[in-house]
Amino acid sequence: MKRLSLSLVLFMLFPFFAKAGEGMWIPMLLQYNEKEMQEMGMRITAEDIYSINHSSLKDAIVLFGGGCTGEIVSDYGLLLTNHHCGYDYIQRHSSVEHDYLTNGFWAMNRGEELPCPGLSVIFLREMRDVTDQVLADITIDMPEDERQAKVDEHIKAIIADVEKETNYKVSIKPYFLGNEYYLLLNEVYTDVRLVGCPPSNIGKFGGDTDNWVWPRHTGDFSIFRVYADKDGHPAVYSEDNVPYKPAKHLDISLKGAEEGDFAFVFGYPARTNEYLPSVAVDQEANLIDPITVDLRGKVLDIYNKYQEQDPKVRIQYASKHASIGNGWKKWMGVTEGINHFHGVEKKEAYEHEFFDWAMQSRSRYMYVNLMKDFKKNYEELEPYELAYTYMAEAGMRIEIVNFAGRFVKLSEVTKDTPQDEIDMMITNLKASAEKFYKDYYEPIDREVAAMLLSEYLKAQPADFRPAFLNDIKDVNDYVGKMFDKSMFTDQAKVNTLLDNFKVNNAKKLANDPALLVYQSLIGFYREKVYDHIKALTEDNARLQRIYMKGQMEMQPEKRFSPDANFTLRVTYGKVEGFRPKDGMKYNHFTTLEGIMQKENPDIYDYVVEPRLKQLYNTKDYGRYADKDGTMHVAFTASVHTTGGNSGSPILNADGQLLGLNFDRCWEGTMSDLIYDPDICRNISVDIRYVLFIIDKFAGAGHLINEMTIVE
Ligand code: ARG
Ligand code: ASP
What we know:
This protein is of the alpha+beta class. 46% of the residues lie in helices and 14% in strands. The radius of gyration is 27 Å and the shape is globular.
């Protein structure tokens, strides 16, 4: 890594802090941000956003399905989230006769809404600071296991105590890497029904091609409704349940937003790591991510080749392509962003500051060696992280190997295994097999396997390889034999085995070449990798906690924001475009015009719905048009978001809904590690486009009538 000039270092003092846009704030502490938010243009108060004394915006926000955010937009429990968040539930209700994914779905009355078993939404009712109780009697130099035991014991006692006074679900989570603890009182509703979704041509317009990319034109929304018992309490699905009446629902603005307008996002960001030391960022951005990107890129190339040849294969591999491609594209952006920003060097400069500060007083002795210890740990971790990466991204990516892993238990049964246990395994495996083979295409898997195993062999030294790799003389020959001999390439063979399974088949199953490869990968990981990763990761967590404490001591005036941990947060910034490169400026919004420009009937991701085209041609936008006369589709803002923020409301200065967050621009995906307000942008679908689709496209105006629209 290059060293930086002194002037650059001086310019960067405390470079990671106090930038507008950065930070995922705890709602109950928002009064500390209120002044800044109001200076940026906000016209409401922190109490309007989070209060336990009266209704506030928080009463309209939910954790949706355990992984996304949703918001309530009517007094009848109507909920908005992203199309990609509701996708699984839409898919489960879809069949050849009712293909809601392709055609969309609109319940024209409440009787037509579709129950979604397994889907829940969670409301945060209250949070409390319990740091002092959780950390009582804990000292900084206490051995780690002793500390953890005490923390666990305190948490258990506090929860037991609070549970006596409430019916809410009680949990306690660490913030600031274990320097603070907050108690959360949650209410979980499990009767949630699908109300509507646009066709995928709208809800997923641009597909994987446009994923993480600006300009964007995705109508990424779906509609659900939360139901409760007659008293408004959570209840399992019943025809007698009634729409849930929230303490507060979001008002919707039809005014749109101008560049520079204040905006905030209220939702459930999953995970960020803003306080990692430079060595960790370097390892992630410059070693692990590039390897993962390279391997996945090669896999995707093979997928693409076959997908282009055959429409059936395109559909079979669409979902695999999407999930491999999501990380692939994101991590490419992370590496590029970190290096472009000189993120590692800037962190190093900051760490020198920190060291100098620690050296100034004896009482700061516990901070002096932190960076040395981090460095040692990450150096030690490196070969194991690499081993893990290759095992997961090269070994386990071979589909028959991964699938064979599910048969390990069955391959180990003996005559002492109870028959009902075996029957249960067989039932489950039959279901998995059906799903697996529906989307399996052997020529892809063969080619992927040969490519991945040669990469694996090239990259990993002999003592960091699973045993089977060291026996390979010629990769193509090996893969050829594995695929010819394994039963897992052949659905009929697997079905025959499952239909007529006898205990004495177990041995043959255990010797299947794909299953042997699986066992070799897992065995290697268990014996040679896992313990090291676990011990070093735990020690790094301890160092991170102390480092965080030190940073807060070094800058007592600064407002720190805790890393995301899947709890409710407020993040704020401005509606704005950005300059991705010298000589380029991205506009902050897109319009329906852009959908027509992207239209290509031959490319799946860019097929435009005829009805949408018709509305475009007649410019029938009604009150949903912007004052410039066009139909705005999506917009960017400098608001700090991450995975889990999908579906989150983005709100204006008055706390009214402007849109639904659904993605970020890939130039700024490093924001999970370092937030730079110059290039980190979140992407939202404009609420006016959502309403236009509901009203004009789908003719579901009855849903709009439930909402509170501010014109
Ligand atoms: N990149 C977005 C988020 O993580 C959206 C992913 C879904 N959309 C897609 N086209 N794959 O995770
Ligand atoms: N697309 C992400 C999500 O699904 C959001 C993001 O990572 O910006 O939560």
